[in-house]
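Sorry, explain these tokens?

___
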Amino acid sequence: GIEEAIQYLNLYISRITEETNPIDDAIVGSIQVSNDSDTQISKIFISHASKDKDIVEDLIDLLELIGVESHQIFCSSFEGYGIPLGENFLETIKAQLTNDSLVLFVLTENFYQSAVCMCEMGAAWVLSKKHIPIVVPPLGYADIRGVIPNTQGLEINNAQKWNSLKQQIETQFQINGQENSAGWERKRDRILGRINKHIAEVKN
């Protein structure tokens, strides 16, 4: 719980202290933050509450439909995407959450009730190159809290926003969008249909 979350955040702060450059970095409080916009993004880190794993699984399906390889996705809730057996949980996540990661925050009430998720949010803001909040209804943009309230995001079941995110990911991961365009909207809508069912179940 809380003690683990504190240990978790301290590991991140330790990494920040060791690796930042005081000449080229912007200072936020007492922490120096790298602003190297030329760093190539090579992986996606999905920050989420374990209680939302059904929705997150559909999110992974959408990312792979876009063309992101499974080894480029880190998601602690699923075998093959998360922490290998025998590996240290905190150290593995610290290593994954680096400045070559695109961090997707799956924002739900479960997320905001998780101490570890909130630590990930703070650490991602400090360590990562880019982050995008993905809001899950009934939450809306006005409900975004923490250190990312001004970051442009999307509602998870908004088809047009997914088209925009697809183009962005294709550029950042150097994916040939033409090769993955066939059937995109049909398959996208089928996955979003599953997501809407999960949302309806939560509301009920």
Notes: The two ends are 28 Å apart (CA to CA).
